[in-house]
Design goal:
Blueprint: E1 2-6, H1 10-21, E2 25-30, E3 46-47, H2 54-68, H3 70-74, E4 85-86, E5 90-93, H4 102-110, E6 116-118, H5 120-126, E7 157-160, E8 164-166, H6 169-182, E9 186-189, E10 193-199, E11 202-208, E12 213-215, E13 218-221, H7 227-234, E14 244-255, E15 267-270, E16 275-280, E17 284-289, E18 299-300, H8 312-324, E19 336-344, E20 350-353, E21 359-363, H9 373-388, E22 399-401, E23 408-410
Parallel strand pairs: 1-2, 1-13, 2-9, 5-15, 13-21
Antiparallel strand pairs: 3-8, 4-8, 5-7, 6-7, 10-11, 11-12, 14-17, 14-18, 14-19, 15-16, 16-17, 20-21, 22-23
Helix pairs in contact: 1-6, 1-9, 2-9
Length: 430
Amino acid sequence: MDAIVIGAGVIGAAVAFELAKRGHGVTIVDRERAAGHGSTAGSCAIIRMHYSTWDGTALAWEGYHYWRDWRGHLQAPDGEDLARYVECGCLVMKTEGNGYLEKHMANSRDLSIPLEEWDTDQIKAALPGIDLNRFAPARLMDDPAFGAPTGGQIDGAVFWPSGGYMTDPALSAKNLADAAQRHGAHLRLGATVEAILENNGRASGVRLAGGEDLHADVVVNVAGPASSRINQMAGVTDDMTIQTRALRQEVTHLPAPPDVYAGSGMVLSDSDACVYSRPEHGGNVLIGSEDPPCDTMEYLDDDTTYDRDFTDQWTTQALRMAQRFPSIGIPSRTKGVVDLYDAATDWIPIYDRSSLPGFYMACGTSGNQYKNAPIAGILMAELIDAVEGGQDHDNDPVKMTLPYVGREIDLGFYSRKRPINEQSSFSVLG
């Protein structure tokens, strides 16, 4: 079987790697000039395993094991420059908004994921200078009550010691693309897909800008923020209850004074202040939004032309972080990232076949699926092989046993036809 994978981001490269390992002929097509230089490059590359759904928790815990043995997973030769996993732990504040993490802890305990419940003294010992006043609900800067405590204090948190982040998300995608090429995959960069080819009612390849046709038995849409346009090209959106859209996001980059992050720091999720953060090299911190209702969600129809300048959202995120850590400095010069998510309706990805035989989707992954890239590649290869082998995934969903976790998951959870999952947090740590 020959496959064309549209997208050389971290998920697309992982899919290509797993298909190539199984002996399939693979061509990866990407409009960028290097693997991982689309939305993957803008990721905070956080690896966490706390989720409100069991399926999300299981997949994330499985994914962690590949990151912590990245060289082994890639079968990379000694000396190859690889992205590195920093296992600094992830601290999540208990709030009313996240149900005081009861579901997250139950899922973790069921899967034997290490966790620690912390009281306020433990939080303050790990994060000197922290202000544990409650600030929810989040407000915009022009609200007179912005930044004012709303009564009471955060009285606990959960620490997942296995959490962390990858040092270079773009490099991690390149690592996967290189590994795929060692197994015979071909990489076509600077190549924009203009049409999905069909023959006898099946996807049969892609047409590139300039008119070149590439032919294959299957086509896999892993185009990130361009995924909705690719699905429209293929004419497969009519039976999808879950859609994907490009969503503009900003990440704030600030200096982190020593009293904010003791030692090497940690990933922090705070749904009261509505920000998440992680340490960055050079004594800095990356800060993203947990998307409270008051913030504008800027969905885009065009994923190629959008405002790449910072807006008031940058300042809002910085000031929300300053609510929790009053000593943090906010420089006059803005630094950080402006990029796009590929966001699904319920923020849970689509890993599925489509209504067009031979056309598959790994979409809606930006911001919440970087951590799952290695296992997402395995999952998609398993799905494609099963469906091409004759299994009716829509009516008899493919199931697979997670190699490290040893538990079975139902890939129907990620169906394009699923009802909107109300257990979703409808937010991400990007």
